[in-house]
Amino acid sequence: MVFSPYLLTIVLSWVVAQGAKYVIVAIKNRNFDHLRQLYLSGNMPSAHSATVMSMATIVGLKNGWDSALFGVAIMVAGVVMYDAVMVRRSVGEQGLALQELIRAAKNNERVVIPRAAKGHTPLEVVVGGILGVLIGYVVFIATI
C-alpha cells in the first residue's frame, strides 16, 4: 500500500477546515441547511491557508527547516495566503458591487446575476494557517 503523509496532510487539512466552516455557519445560523459551506470559498477558517501551511509544516518536519523543499513550500504558502486576503477578497467585494449594479439596472428583465466568490479576512487566514500547522504536526507524529 502506498501511503504519503504529504498527501494525507493536504486532504486532512482541507476536510477539517471546510468541515469547521460548515459547523461555524450552522451554529451561527442555528440550522444545518448550509451544506454549500463544505465546498465554497470564504469564511472561517481559510481552507487554502490550512492546506498550504500543513504542507509546509510536514515538509519542514520531514525534510528539514533548512531544506530547499521547505523554502519552496513556505513561499507557496505565503503567496496563497497573501492572495486570499488581498486579491481574492478584493475581487469578491467587486463582485458584490457588480451584483448590486445589475440588480439596480435590471428594469424588470430576467437577468442572471453572477456569483461573487469571497476571499478571506486576515483573521480567517491566520486561523487557517494555525490550523494547518497543527494538522501538519499531528500527521507527522502519527506517521513516524
Can you tell me about this structure?
The model has no long low-confidence stretch (mean pLDDT 88). The protein contains 4 helices and no strands. The chain is mostly helical. The protein has helices spanning 5-29, 47-63, 68-105, 122-142. The protein has one domain (5-142). The longest helix is centred in the middle third of the chain and has 38 residues, at 68-105.
Q: What does the secondary structure layout of this molecule look like, with pairings?
A:
Blueprint: H1 5-29, H2 47-63, H3 68-105, H4 122-142
Helix pairs in contact: 1-2, 1-4, 2-3, 2-4
Protein traits:
144 residues, mainly alpha
Average residue pLDDT:
88
Number of strands: 0
**Number of helix segments?**
4
Helix content: over 70%
Strand content: under 5%
**Which structural class fits the helix and strand makeup?**
mainly alpha
Could you say how many structural domains there are in total?
1
The CA-CA distance between the termini, in Å, is 16 Å
Tell me about the biggest sheet? none
Shape: elongated
Oligomer: single chain
The unreliable regions are none
Q: Roughly how many Å is the radius of gyration?
A: 18 Å
The sequence of SSEs as H and E is: HHHH
What's a quick, concise take on this entry?
The protein is mostly helical.
